[in-house]
Amino acid sequence: MNFNRLIPELSVSNFQRSLSFYTQVLPFSVDFQRPEHRFAFLSLQGSQIMIEQQNGHWETAPLEYPYGRGINLALQVDDLDDVLRPVKSHHYPIKLGPEENWYRMNDEVLGNKEVLIVDPDGYLLRFLQHLGSRSLSTAAEST
Fold first, then answer.
1. What's 35's domain CATH number?
2. pLDDT digit string, tens, across residues 28-86
3. Is position 136 within any domain?
4. Long-range contacts made by residues 42-47, C-beta under 8 angstroms, separation at least 24?
């Protein structure tokens, strides 16, 4: 198994609820887990995260909802509809989107189709499908 160089580990208030959310409402797969520690290593199309029952080991201050204040986790997917399909079938709320956004990077703009979903503990997940890039001059002409 290959591990990404950066893998967020999310402390969760209810491990079973979070595991169900990530594997049923969202299409993550469980690469491995340690049930005795209420821990799971999850992946989706090359993105990796870990979830673990809140245990006091990794906290710098008391955790209060929403746990993910000030951060959003961006996860690139091949087809955003593959993520949205189970979210919609479970009637899970979508915070924002889907919408198309273009971001300047040096002399070009990069396009993404994006949706924001908040997990049960308040972590903000930004799923994005890359739409390609254009030169900055071409993008300016089309606006």
1. 3.10.180.10
2. 999 999 999 999 999 999 999 999 998 878 777 888 899 988 899 999 999 999 999 99
3. yes
4. 44/75, 44/77, 44/83, 45/75, 45/76, 45/77, 45/78, 46/4, 46/76, 47/4, 47/75, 47/76
List CB contacts of 17: < 8 A, sequence separation 6 or more: 120
Give me the domain span that covers residue 31: 9-59+71-141
Is 105 within a domain?
yes
- CA dist 38 and 16 (Å) reads 8
Taking the C-alpha atoms of residue 80 and residue 122, their distance in angstroms, rounded to an integer, is 21
- Alpha carbon 26 to its chain centroid, in Å, reads 9
Structure tokens at 110: 């990069």
Query: How many domains in the chain?
Result: 1
φ, ψ for residue 78, nearest 5 deg: -70, -40
Q: The pTM is what? A: 0.87
Spell out the residues 6+ positions from residue 64 whose beta carbon is closer than 8 angstroms to its own.
none
Under 8 Å between Cβ of 48 and 3: yes
**Region of 38 on the Ramachandran plot (φ > 0 left; ψ -120 to 50 alpha; else beta):** left
